From TrEMBL:
InterPro entries: NAD(P)-bd_dom_sf, Sacchrp_dh-like_C, Sacchrp_dh_NADP-bd. Gene3D superfamilies: Dihydrodipicolinate Reductase, domain 2 (3.30.360.10), NAD(P)-binding Rossmann-like Domain (3.40.50.720). This is Saccharopine dehydrogenase. Residues 4-136 form the Saccharopine dehydrogenase NADP binding domain. It comes from the Bacteria. The lineage of its organism: Bacteria, Pseudomonadati, Campylobacterota, Epsilonproteobacteria, Campylobacterales. It holds the Pfam family Sacchrp_dh_C. Residues 141-387 form the Saccharopine dehydrogenase-like C-terminal domain. Signal peptide: none annotated.
């Protein structure tokens, strides 16, 4: 088999496919498939114009394993990159083991009727992947993704032991709308309106949604209110980082965003269960997603920067040590390069890099892996040259 098959044609896919096209010497042949073929064609046509690379397109229902298997057998790729929705993770994984092809994604499986954000069902496929002699790389976006690589890099190169990690995610972009989400509204609003949770001394501690707020100074962005959320990489990092005592995740939200979200929550518009409206069954959050601006349309109007990174504290040579590893991304620069804003960009670039690590055999093995289980250095090197350069700051230890 040669080439890669990318599934999904939203904002993240636009960036990942463009970046794969920029690395066509590595990937050899690229096929882009999604539910709506016109979205694949639009991405392919921009790439032909800007990068002069041909992207093959196809339509597929990624909820349906036999359709996926048929497509994979026709395309014969070496790796499938899943940038559809988290609902499709398990079906695409099954199609990969049935056809003997490696798998990469950027978000953990979710059932459309429950918001759980856990790796359980994907980790349960360990044996299935081993038997099929293929591998799955889970969570190769920014968070999860680069945040795990930053932690792995720190563990492998900077510390003897890591005790505390705070993942700090700031989007200081302004799109000018009173309310919009930067990526899929269903996924985004489910995540933010759920209870918060962090891990300390082997236990999960639950908080009410947005209960814990800190003011954090993001380099090149400034001080922003940041809220503790549960985020899926906490589940794998608390297992894979040795010596860890606490890991937390914080994300910035403006006051207007929170006011809108609380109001929508209070009136039931974030509901994920079906309700009947004038004889028709609708899911409130799906209807809300129809009303909100399409995240893909935010690109041209979003200005400002993102800063996502990890503050890591531990021991080196018997002494306390603390570092801040982060990346800064500018919405307009991302848009100029790929036609998408920084949230899609910061996910799509690492999706390409993870796929490259697997495609080139730099990351090898059989089974299901989280990103921090591999050697971080080659991925960190790629980040520097593919558009997501990082900085390491030494912080004073208190
Ligand atoms: P979008 O909603 O913009 O795009 C999703 C794409 O998947 C659409 O093209 C959609 O098709 C397609 N799709 C949905 N269902 C199916 C199906 N059954 N069969 C085939 N195609 C389907 O999402 P984003 O691009 O914003 O996000 C993509 C992924 O990236 C998500 O899983 C998201 O959770 C993840 N993500 C990860 C981040 C990270 O840092 N790790 C950050 C941000 C996002 P159609 O257009 O027809 O609906």
């Amino acid at each position: 088999n040669t080439g890669i098959l990318i599934i999904g044609a939203g904002g993240v896919s636009r960036v990942a496919t463009t970046k794969c096209a920029m690395n066509i010497n590595t990937f050899e042949k690229i096929t882009l498939a999604s539910r709506t073929i016109s979205k694949c064609e639009a991405i392919a046509s921009d790439i032909k114009k800007n990068q002069n690379v041909v992207i093959n397109v196809a339509s597929v229902d990624a909820d349906n394993v036999p359709s996926l298997v048929k497509l994979i057998e026709e395309v014969k790729p070496r790796v499938v990159l899943n940038v559809a929705l988290p609902y499709q993770d398990l079906t695409i994984m099954d199609a990969c083991t049935q056809t003997g092809v490696d798998y990469v994604d950027t978000a953990n499986y979710e059932h459309p009727d429950e918001a759980k954000f856990e790796y359980k069902e994907q980790w349960a496929k360990q044996e299935q992947f081993e038997k099929a002699n293929v591998k799955a790389l889970l969570g190769s976006g920014f968070d999860p993704g680069v945040t795990g690589v930053f932690c792995a890099y720190a563990q492998q190169n900077l510390f003897d032991e890591i005790n505390y990690i705070d993942i700090m995610d700031c989007n200081a972009g302004d799109h000018g709308y009173p309310f919009a989400t930067n990526f899929n509204p269903e996924i985004n609003l489910r995540e933010v309106s759920s209870n918060g949770r962090y891990w300390e001394e082997g236990k999960w501690i639950e908080t009410k949604p947005l209960e814990i707020r800190v003011e954090h100074d993001y380099p090149e962005v400034g001080v922003k209110p940041s809220y503790l959320l549960y985020h899926e990489e906490l589940e794998s990092l608390c297992k894979n980082i040795k010596g860890l005592k606490r890991i937390r995740f914080f994300m910035t939200f403006g006051d207007a965003y929170i006011q809108h979200m609380n109001c929508l929550q209070n009136v039931g518009m974030l509901g994920i269960k079906e309700v009947e409206h004038k004889g028709q069954k609708i899911i409130p959050i799906e209807f809300l997603a129809t009303l909100l601006p399409d995240p893909a349309s935010l690109g041209p109007r979003t200005v400002g920067k993102t800063n996502i990174g990890c503050i890591i504290e531990g021991i080196k040579d018997g002494k306390k040590k603390k570092v801040y590893i982060y990346n800064i991304c500018d919405h307009q620069e991302c848009y100029k390069e790929t036609g998408a804003q920084a949230v899609s960009y910061t996910t799509g670039v690492p999706a390409m890099i993870g796929t490259k690590m697997i495609y080139q055999g730099i990351w090898d093995g059989k089974g299901v892996f989280n990103i921090e289980e591999f050697d971080a250095k080659p991925f960190m090197d790629e980040l520097m040259t593919q558009g997501l350069p990082w900085t390491i700051l030494d912080l004073p230890v208190d």
